[in-house]
Amino acid sequence: MVRPSLNDLAAFAAVASHQSFRRAADIMGVSRSALSHTIIGLEAKLDVRLFNRTTRSVSLTQAGARLFARLDPVLQDLDQALDTLSEERGTPSGTLRINANKSGARILLADVVPRFLDLYPDVELDLVSEGRLVDIVEQGFDAGVRLLEAVPKDMVAVKFGGDVRFIAVAAPSYLDGRAMPNTPDDLNAHCCIRQRLPSGKRYRWEFSRHGAEVAIDVPGNLTLDDSDLLVQAAAEGRGIAYVPEYFARPFLESGQLVTVLDEWCPPTPGLALYYPRSRHLPSPLRAFIDRLREVDRSR
User: Which positions of the chain have pLDDT values less than 70?
Assistant: First the structure.
């Protein structure tokens, strides 16, 4: 038997972990054909089939499952050993992959990322912004960023950025000649700009006041799936939108938008960076969290 290389074994572990050549190739930064060629070569060296492959799925054979069960902790120990060397040098290195929602990515880019990259030029930061909540372990991310209430319970959460506030906004031109809504129910007499969630469902606007909570599927003839577009449409007088205050703030300051139902829009727990509880914390992620907390304390 020809002894496989470490790259061969790392490629096998990536495919085994994600049960997908496409995901493993994306994470490793190689083409699917190159990764497939590596796995075929590994199976030839070991003289054993490691994966069951169909056009739709990839699964481990019994031999592959036994190898992965023994190999995965070894590779994690190796990563930890390399991180220890990196820490001794005092300069974290490698790739840090973070999956964030759009508002989280904006805040990180404005306040944390520049400082982090200046301090640690040997780290390659891969920041992916998307609306849907993904399994960061399955998708090969080191950490995620979402609203604290959306963080999975088995994750370690590091809150940052303070509370957030979702607000209802409209252009003065839209409100001119119309009755100002005083309660969430009054929205039923207005044209609202609705939001489509990444799941495909339409978002029900959520309000609370003095302990009373209300969720409304508001009426409207325009539905969008992006907060920037919602704010833009509201500023153009298309109706009332319900967005994170962060996105609307420049338009509020310029007078292009005003808030409605202000007393029904209290602050809620804000964003958190989160990561798996049971895994070793890579040195780039540890350094990123340190900078995140440093920036947060200075606010």
Answer: 1, 80-90, 278-280, 299
202: which 2 tokens? 């339409």
Measure the CA–CA gap between 229 and 247, rounded to whole angstroms.
Answer: 10
Under 8 Å between Cβ of 188 and 218: yes
Q: Are 98 and 142 in contact (CB under 8 A)?
A: yes
75: nearest Cα among 11, 25, 31, 139: 11
Residue 243's pLDDT is what? 94
Question: Residue 97 corresponds to which amino acid?
Answer: R
- Are 170 and 258 in contact by the 8 Å Cβ rule? The answer is yes
- 0.90 surpassed by pTM: no
Report yes or no: 215 and 244 within 8 Å, Cβ to Cβ: no
* Cross-strand bridge partners of residue 260: 168
Rounded (to 5) percent helix, strand, coil in the chain: 45, 25, 30
